[in-house]
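FAQ: What does a multi-protein file look like?

Like this. Sequence, then tokens, then the next protein.
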Amino acid sequence: MRVLVVEDHRALNTLITAGLRREAMAVDAALDGHAALEQVATTRYDVVVLDRDLPGVHGDEVCRRIVAGGAGSRVLMLTAAGTVRDRVEGLGLGADDYLPKPFDFAELVARVRALGRRSTPALPPVLDNGDLTLDPNRRVASRAGRRLDLAPKEFAVLAHLLAAAGRVVSAEELLDRVWDEATDPFTTTVKTTIGRLRAKLGQPPAIHTVRDGGYRIGAP
């Protein structure tokens, strides 16, 4: 899942961004409305976590433009004002969900995941291929009944490959959907992560390299 966090409070922005990355999401950050609009113009986000009270371009206007852009990004609006009227106004602007501050981080994660499911084609609650199973919501993956100890990026790569259902997934697609904007597009991080993931999955090989194509799960 690709997420943009738009929050002008730098410390809170950092906390949310780091926390969502630990949940195996690809997360970019913006500190004001202008930066947010620039980023949504060049990157497709599944979910935008949007503070309503932003400097520069107000969060209300950012929300309007995201919705009008038609990219399908879901908007979770955050605000310190938590009255019913505020929530109604936020949803009336086109936001998909509304969370008043302060909030419990576990609830934020649950709402982001729920919106992410709405922004993409429906997937089964548990992804599987052969003896491989992965539960995105519980963040549990196993092979032949053996639970796998995966780092967040390894888990996200495996989830994306399983969701592709045998389709070849390029390294560029994995970079776009699993990593954030700070990642060097010429880096070998995808190859390195695939190598670590293969080692943890064990034998027989589950991830196959397709020459001049990318990677896929299933029979070569």
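And here is the next protein:
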Amino acid sequence: MNAEAISLNEKEVKPVVDLLNDYLANYHIHYQKLRGCHWNIKGQNFFTLHVKFEELYTNAQLTIDEIAERVLTLGKPPHSRFADYISESSIQEINTIGLNDLAMVDAILDDMAKLIELEREILIASDEASDDGTNDMVNRFMQFKEKNTWMLRSFAGKK
């Protein structure tokens, strides 16, 4: 399949696919960080954050699948190697063992800020390519992160 099978211009969609693969790489690192936070949370906020991190990594897992399937819908292969995720992601891995609860929240907030930045880039590129499917999908993902950014910032006592 190629982009023209769904009435999109192959050349115009190429930047969208490239950004989606970059987004996919970043999301995989974010996902693993969420898993590490879920597994290694300790302290007074354990019950609250253990559940929240699980909610977020479950959502991230579904999001990753949708991103990869969108890349395939546009006629290209999604990245699927951890080596690619690590080399292409601007989100960095961290060691969550021994990390305190609010440092975990800060790390997740940093990831979300980067993912939202990438989402805004994808929205511009998908708009320029008349790719409403990608635009709608990414907009939905961004809204989820914007709301959770507000919630985590409120939890951590940030403005």
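Q: Is there any per-entry metadata?
A: Some entries carry free-text notes. For the entry above: Residues 10-40 form the longest helix (31 residues).
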